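tool=predict chain=A
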Amino acid sequence: MRVRGNPRAQVVRIGERLDAGTSAGVRSRLHEAVEAGEGDLIVDLSKLEMIDATGLGVLVGTHRLALSVQRRLVLRGVPPRIMRVLAVTRLNRVLHVEVPQAAVA
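tool=predict ok
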């Protein structure tokens, strides 16, 4: 996972898995990023292949933390498989998912 920051937003890239085995480390990095920056916190999920309930909990918890400090969590590059999980759990209605430019046109 890499964190890249700028004055208006931060980008955090998540690896291939966000599950019970990786969630503790990812959670602490995301929470540190929320507390250390300003503007949107963009979470790049383009490499993510697997997410479980624990991983979804990390995203929801980070979303709540971001809201508490007037920031916004934005999911970028969500693969179709992960998007289906978000849709089934209805988290796509809670979390902000960035729509690719090609999909808008």
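The chain has a mean pLDDT of 90. Strands lie at 2-5, 9-13, 17-18, 40-44, 50-51, 73-76, 96-97.
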